[in-house]
Specification:
The protein is an alpha+beta fold. The chain has helices at residues 19-34, 47-59, 110-124, 139-147, and strands at residues 9-14, 63-70, 73-81, 93-101, 129-135, 151-162, 165-175. Strand 2 and strand 3 (73-81) form a beta hairpin. The longest helix is centred in the first third of the chain and has 16 residues, at 19-34.
Length: 190
């Protein structure tokens, strides 16, 4: 029996989207939204709205788009958001946000690779802490973040509203320096 070749997977920081990449990104996001794993949207917006959203992400200086590719097709992404320059007190931290994976592309380790890509890029920018939040219904994402060493900080019972029903959200953080007790340089561990 002949084995199928293993798909090519990679993660990259995107600063420019080709027309094909934009179409792939929109398609993957629409599929993720339809499957309930979107990043805030409950139903896919019109394609022109989706395209404008992704083009806008690339224009914001404090946002970095990290995408995952499966056989060179964009199938998921996440964003690293840094505080604005006037927020010096929180300049050490960033937010991992708007993470999603197309349902048909799951099972290849790309969600982990994307999260690790965000972490690596954050470290390269000198960030020391990453924060994130996620609906409690996103069990696979929660399992992933816990396996990556994120610490659960709290739960918000009215985090989101889906089909008229409140859905709780969980808040996580991670010390990018790898200090397992949760203390970062310059903080006092209790």
């Amino acid at each position: 029996m002949t084995q199928m070749p293993k798909p090519d997977t990679k993660v990259e920081v995107v600063t420019k989207l080709t027309r094909g990449d934009l179409a792939d990104l929109c398609h993957a996001a629409e599929d993720a939204i339809e499957a309930g794993g979107g990043f805030g949207w409950l139903k896919p917006p019109r394609r022109d709205v989706m395209e404008s959203y992704w083009k806008g992400v690339l224009m914001v200086p404090e946002r970095t788009l990290i995408v995952g590719r499966l056989d060179n097709v964009i199938v998921g992404s996440a964003q690293l958001v840094r505080p604005p320059k006037n927020n010096e007190a929180q300049a050490h931290s960033g937010q991992l946000t708007t993470s999603f994976m197309a349902p048909w592309a799951r099972g290849h380790g790309l969600a982990r690779m994307i999260a690790e890509g965000v972490e690596n890029h954050a470290r390269s920018l000198g960030l020391r802490v990453l924060n994130l939040d996620v609906r409690e219904t996103q069990e696979a994402a929660i399992t992933l973040y816990r396996s990556l060493g994120y610490h659960e900080l709290g739960r918000h019972p009215h985090y989101a509203r889906v089909n008229g029903v409140y859905v709780a959200g969980l808040y996580f953080w991670k010390d990018l320096n790898g200090n397992g007790n949760g203390a970062t340089q310059g903080s006092k561990a209790s």
